[in-house]
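Team,

Forwarding the record for the chain on the shared tracking sheet. I've put the sequence and predicted structure together so nobody has to dig through attachments.
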Amino acid sequence: MTEAVRSVFYVDLKAESSSPPALSASPTPAATASRFSSFAEALAEANRLRETNEGKHYDSEFGTAIQAARPQLADVVHECAKDSKLPIVFDVVFIFAADGRVESTLQTPDQSTAVCVADKVRNVRLPAPPRAGWPVQLHIELNPANDATKKRTGPNPATSKDMQLAMQAGKAKVAGNYEEALRLYARAIKLNGHFAPFVYQNRGMLYLNRAKESTDRRARIADLQKAIADFKKSIALGAASDDELNRGLEKIATKANVEEATKLLAQETGQ
């Protein structure tokens, strides 16, 4: 397990095949030249950025997109790896353009499965990155002996109602319709499903982002307080979960988000 808990994807070999919606409704972007000269360079920069506050936040956005697309991604990996010998471990670095589309991908050299997966999932779409040419790493393991897969219990989060609602909320958030996103997050939270830690994390990010954009001091304070409450709830639920991705929220994205929101709130209130 690497440091980037939410960017790690363990593929369950026994996952049932399904026909879920595409990774993104956006059309697959045309390939463009990357600002990186090699996979190693892109991976090193992705790792460096992950340690910054803005990098942790964007890695969280990417992790949420990957978590939401688990069934599709599992099918893609299985298809690409059908003629390869297990175990298979590889990395793909997505380079995001200024508008959140995938500008290009780089992958583990001399790994046909990695090339195949990178080509098939390049239509993932995120909010705008901190700046153009932003790299994010996805680490994939296909291994029948994977402990993380064996430890996963409960209903498949990829097919749960709360995840479906969270995905809809995420689309509303990207479109700038915060009120609709909040309504959908509230519905997802009431279900108290397996995806609850991520729902709270995602709603907290909405509150945090809205606070940063607001020019109303009272509204900023209220949103920061709500963001902190949601982040703390996400951490508490994740810590009590048997799912490794849920537990990882405290170590990576959500912990950094709590710290940033708390710092901003202190600046607003003078405490």
